[in-house]
Design a protein that fits this description.
Elements (H helix, E strand, L loop, with lengths): L1 E6 L12 H8 L4 E6 L12 E2 L9 E2 L1 H11 L12 E12 L2 H7 L4 E6 L7 H6 L3 E4 L9 H12 L33 E2 L2 E2 L2 H5 L2 H19 L1 H18 L6
Parallel strand pairs: 1-2, 1-6, 5-6, 5-7
Antiparallel strand pairs: 3-4, 8-9
Bound molecules: ligand 9D3.
């Protein structure tokens, strides 16, 4: 899979993508990350990417022109407004819909993903209206630009691509996966650290007891830290049950 990033800070990404799972996936040739400098598509002497908002207001906006030129030069088909199956353009902005694990799953099946990083006070709205497939945010907090968002989406997506993880199953059977619970608490050696011991059952070797403890501990921790996840598990199960119901009975 090829990831394209359009940004005014191309250097931001080097270290992030050299290490860990993403670095290994690149080294193995499973993914490619092409970082493009937005200023390469400016035409003026000062390589201007921003301008003041019509109607007044604080700060500067990213201009539409260089962003359209960038996308249309990376994917020339887009110049005619043609959309290629397996390719998606995303704008990272604070005004976007929230990115989540199901979107990462979806993106991992694409052949190419192009991420445009917003900056300053925002981006000329014609980019969201007429160029991109989707406008996404990574959460309800204020960042200074879309670069961290693009890195988050690439990391979450790349690790799901077949062959990237050592264990093919581990991408599925984890939190925010099928069961929608947080992981259970986990411990490693030493069995006693500063007087705090590991739950007895985990060192006992009774696998059925361990399985039950882990299930209970995961549900307890999820209820304490992320009760919103438990509610959505309930919603999913209700949805499944009504799917199974006799379609004659509404
Ligand atoms: C008047 C409010 N504005 C500034 C406080 C809104 C605003 C403009 C531009 C807030 C953030 C930004 C820049 N942020 C991003 O480009 C961004 C972002 C984010 O801020 N939060 C979560 N995800 C993302 S993805 C891109």
């Amino acid at each position: 899979m090829i990831f394209h990033v359009v940004t005014i800070f191309p250097d931001f990404f080097r270290a992030a993508f050299e290490q860990g799972v993403v670095g290994k996936a690149r080294a193995a040739g499973l993914i490619e990350i092409r970082v493009h400098d937005l200023r390469d598509w400016t035409r003026d002497r000062h390589r201007t990417v921003d301008d003041r908002p019509f109607g007044g207001g604080e700060g500067m906006l990213l201009k539409a022109g260089p962003i359209f030129e960038a996308v249309e030069s990376i994917w020339p088909e887009r110049r005619a407004g043609e959309k290629i199956p397996g390719q998606k353009v995303i704008l990272l902005s604070a005004q976007g819909a929230r990115f989540h694990q199901a979107r990462a799953q979806e993106f991992s099946k694409l052949s190419e993903l192009l991420l445009i990083c917003g900056r300053y006070e925002g981006v000329d709205e014609r980019v969201a209206e007429h160029l991109v497939d989707e406008e996404l945010s990574i959460g309800d907090f204020v960042l200074s630009g879309g670069e961290l968002g693009a890195a988050v989406i690439i990391d979450a997506t790349a690790r799901l691509i077949a062959g990237v993880l050592g264990n093919e199953n581990s991408a599925v059977a984890e939190s925010f996966g099928e069961e929608g619970l947080l992981d259970c608490p986990q411990y490693t050696r030493p069995a006693e650290f500063r007087g705090w011991t590991v739950p007895e059952v985990l060192v006992g070797g009774n696998h059925e007891e361990i399985r039950k403890w882990r299930q209970r501990a995961a549900a307890e921790k999820t209820g304490r830290i992320r009760p919103d996840l438990l509610r959505s598990v309930g919603d999913k199960e209700n949805a499944k049950r009504s799917d199974d119901e006799d379609p004659e009975q509404e």
